[in-house]
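Appendix B. Raw example, untouched.
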Amino acid sequence: MSIYVGQLAPDFSLYNTDKKEVKLSDLRGKKVIIHFFPQAFTGVCTTQLCTMRDNINYYTNLNAVVLGISVDSVFTLGKFKEQENYNFDLLSDFNKETARTYGAIYEDWILGMKGVAKRAAFVIDENGVVTYAEVLESAGDLPDFSKIEAAVA
């Protein structure tokens, strides 16, 4: 499935690093920036999330919430969050359902790994409508942060 600008964002319920359930629908009334990333502790993923961490005030001042999603376990994501001092939730899509729903999954990836999240970014407005969608085929590419900022503004 592919997610496109103008559609209602599919709801999901995932666990964060505190083992608390986070539902997209519970964030209505706020803008939501979702960053899918392949794997914790890897170079480009760290750059992607550190960029959001370092600019979090820009987003929070615009009534936006940032979420990072990967297929890593909550335990792995907890260590990653702690190491990099991320100031937003990292969510585990361990069962790969949300990444599939958002069209952000490699069915076959490197080294024989299957079902790894693609690097992707989505912006969802206060009403739950997608205002920006970017799914990258190359895990070595970063999302367009200037377009994300523009979609949030």
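End of appendix B.
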